[in-house]
Amino acid sequence: MKNMIFIGAQGAGKGTYADVIKAKFDIPHISTGDMFREAIKDETPLGVEAKKHIDGGNLVPDELTIKLVEERLSRDDCKEGFILDGFPRTLPQAQALDKITEITQVVFLEVTEDVIMQRLGGRIQCRKCSKIFHKTNMPPKVEGVCDVCGGELYTRDDDRPEAIKKRLAIFQEQTAPLMDFYEKKGVVVHVDSNDPIPSEVVKDIMKKIE
Ligand code: ADP
Ligand code: ZN
Q1: What is the rounded average pLDDT of the residues 142-170?
Q2: Pocket (CB within 6 angstroms of ligand 1)
Q3: 111 and 8 in contact (C-beta within 8 Å)?
Q4: What is the pLDDT of residues 29-84, one digit of tens each?
Q5: Which domains does the chain possess?
Q6: Alpha-carbon span 147 to 124, nearest angstrom
Q7: How far is the CA of 153 from the centre of ligand 2 (A)?
Q8: Who contacts 183 (Cβ-Cβ below 8 Å, separation ≥6)?
Q9: Is residue 89 annotated as part of the catalytic site, yes or no?
């Protein structure tokens, strides 16, 4: 059984690695952020409620988030395992999850602040079609111009250095108590996510969770 949680700061590559690892074990990748975005798009009662909090830059209340995850984990496709991404984010969420099921591994993807600043700081996005590029890692063919639609490329407000620092501080604050909780259970594996070659990071994750 692989009941896993992936934890890491913005820019740690959680989503990227979760997508590769889920295919190797044939288990679902469950992202609460994606589930909320889906619910908002479909204008379900959950989506309408969640939108109020997300638009204000806040977390969705624990009770609502826990109910959503509990329902998702009860489905058949989670029988052999799952990868949780973006949940738990608070100690009450971790405690509630503990009552729902047993977590077998917590994969902590560690990146230095330098690398995060480089990855998020170089991110540029098309104003017209939203396609994402990176100034050095994935540059457009013509500087400042979208390859796809010719639109203007810009740096998002939340990718400016000051905003990145603030998001990281919030992450540290929220995550430290969670890591304590799982370290005590002895289920945490630490993975160095600074390596620029994704296949190397994946190899390391596989070695540590097997
Ligand atoms: P980000 O990395 O920007 O936080 P996510 O896609 O993980 O992006 O989440 C988007 C938003 O959804 C969050 O800002 C938060 O409001 C809400 N959200 C996601 N996961 C949780 C959670 N476990 N608990 C509470 N709110 C959550
Ligand atoms: Zn474009």
Answers
A1: 90
A2: 10, 32-33, 36, 53-54, 59-60, 65, 86-87, 89, 93
A3: yes
A4: 999 988 998 999 899 999 999 999 888 878 899 999 999 999 999 999 999 999 99
A5: 2-112+162-209 (3.40.50.300)
A6: 12
A7: 8
A8: none
A9: yes
Give 14 Cα–ligand 1 centroid separation in angstroms: 13
Give the pLDDT band of residue 128 (cuts 50, 70, 90): very high
Q: Which residues are CB-neighbours of 104 under 8 A, at least 6 positions away?
A: 1, 2, 3, 4, 81, 187
- DSSP state letter for 160: S
The yes-or-no verdict on residue 88 having pLDDT over 80 is yes
Give the DSSP letter of residue 111.
Answer: -
Tokens of 112: 């230095």
Report how far residue 46's alpha carbon sits from residue 64's, in angstroms, rounded to the nearest whole number.
8
Q: Which of 24, 156, 166, 208 is catalytic?
A: 156
Beta bridge partners of 30: 84
Burial track 131-154 (b if 16+ CB lie within 10 A, e otherwise): eebeeeeeebeeeeebeeeebebe
Burial of 43 (0-12, 13-18, 19+ CB in 10 A): exposed
CA 37/CA 59 separation, integer angstroms: 13
- Three-state DSSP at 4 gives strand
Q: Mean pLDDT of all residues in the chain?
A: 92
Amino acid symbol at 50: A
Residue with tokens 């939203």: 130
Alpha-carbon Rg of the chain, whole angstroms? Answer: 18
